[in-house]
Amino acid sequence: MFEVGGAINLNSDLRISNGNVTIAGQTAPFPGIMLKGHGVRITASNILMQHIAIRVGDDGRSSDGSWDNKDALQITGSGSSNIVIDHCSWSWGIDENSSTWASNAHDITFSNCLIGEALVNSAHSEGSHSKGLLIGGSSNNPKRVAIIGNLFAHNVDRNPQLKGGTSTVIANNVMYNCGDSYSISNMTRNYVSEKTLATYQGNVFVDGPQSASGAYAIKAESNLASGSAFYADDNVNLSRPSYLIKDSAGCRVSSPPLVISDYTPLASGQVADSVLTYAGSRPAQRDDVDARIVSEVYSGTGSRKNHSSGLWPSYSSTSRDFDQYIPSSPNGDSDGDGYTNLEEVLHQMAMQVEGR
């Protein structure tokens, strides 16, 4: 929990190596918490992170290779599980904005996040880059990953990308102004000995000024392992309807290979309004970056970014005493709903910064 709000300048990645941790950014007073300059790396299990903005940037950095793995958020712990990243904002990553690159990781959720403006011609030694969200690893790739209710905007590709051997539900996301791989999934390449399972429901794809005209929204590569399957229902490519699905693997199926219990996706016609209203670290109190990106989606404008210089939002330093919000019996459950009294306070604070 936080008693302060403002920008936190990181000298290195913030590492979460111990499990059973909740990072409740909604407890920070306005303008909230922005981590600046480096990212967050998770190698543990049972992690909940909410309402945090992470903006990496390339200020003062050269393309000497030392920044090639610099994401805003990385999940890299072998066997890491039960991780929920909810209502966060990531921008200006040098590699991806976010990734899971971990063997045997499972039960990971990315929900209601704003994933935007991964840098293009920046400090990556390969040159042009700009990647949104990568789900993968070098072996035994992540299983039971959920990507729900997020806004992907102004990233060239990996919006998201699923490596072979993963199992993922991708539902109710909005993808805007993607580039060469304007695809919700490019299920492919260097780990193909294990089947890939994916369920796509109610996703919305919208071209922007730099979108590639011939790219498909949902794409299954021909080199997927035997037994791979993907299901697609109620997804729409608003700008180019005929470029919705390309199934080079011949593995599209008629029922979902992976489902989330007690979750019902919104109809695609409701998705854009929901995501543009509620995605990001503090939807009811958006900083200048998130507000600009959402406005650009509405207006069909904006562009991908090469550098972060001149783009940083202003964050004032604020503080308040959190003790006033702690209930007399924080670990009790006064209403008997399964959540502690302190968790109820966190839920109420989350609803306030989300505008619900």
Automatic annotation (TrEMBL):
<keyword id="KW-0325">Glycoprotein</keyword>
<protein>
    <recommendedName>
        <fullName>Pectate lyase</fullName>
    </recommendedName>
</protein>
<dbReference type="InterPro" id="IPR012334">
    <property type="entry name" value="Pectin_lyas_fold"/>
</dbReference>
<dbReference type="InterPro" id="IPR052063">
    <property type="entry name" value="Polysaccharide_Lyase_1"/>
</dbReference>
<keyword id="KW-0479">Metal-binding</keyword>
<dbReference type="InterPro" id="IPR011050">
    <property type="entry name" value="Pectin_lyase_fold/virulence"/>
</dbReference>
<dbReference type="GO" id="GO:0046872">
    <property type="term" value="F:metal ion binding"/>
</dbReference>
